[in-house]
Amino acid sequence: MTSAHLPGLILWLPKQDPSHETIPGIGKGAYNHPVVVLSAFAQDGKVIMLPLTSFDETDLLERHRESPHKRKSYLPIDPANVHPDNGMLLRLKNPLLPLRKKSYINTRSKHEIPFEILRPYQRNADFVLSKASYQDLIEYCGFQPPLPSPAPECVPGTFERIPTPYTLAHPRLAPGSRSPVLPYSIRDCTDGPTQTQLS
């Protein structure tokens, strides 16, 4: 992974691995498909995600022509057509790098899954919802990002190295790997719990 930006990041949920534990509530159709991460950081190695579908490259209105209730569950991502009922259309941060297929987010299928099983949607490129679209998405599906756990109490006269949310969410990307990682945050406890960021 090359991005430090988890919220709105589009990744790939690969085919189900028999060696991994079964993820409750996820049907076989969700595997080998893209997902969008809702979580701001991985908690206990897991993130909350929503699955994406292309409806076999069928437009949402054509797929559920007679069911506004079913259409309500999905939000389109540009370059798909705007939602036929609410007019919403989510956009990527980089509009020049669209998804391979016209896709729709299933907003009623939130799942918590191990972050380590996810793969990049495409090598050497990050696909992330724009900040405004991510905000629209979490408001639409009623997702409230949890707050990170508080930092441990600072002991006066010491320095503490605290992993950033990115290093916590990407345990496989250790310093020295080929993928860039953000630096640790150094907390100077000499005069109180202040923090400075390494460059």
UniProtKB/TrEMBL annotation:
Positions of the UniProt region annotated as Disordered: 179-199
Protein name listed in UniProt: Uncharacterized protein
Organism phylogeny: Eukaryota, Fungi, Dikarya, Ascomycota, Pezizomycotina
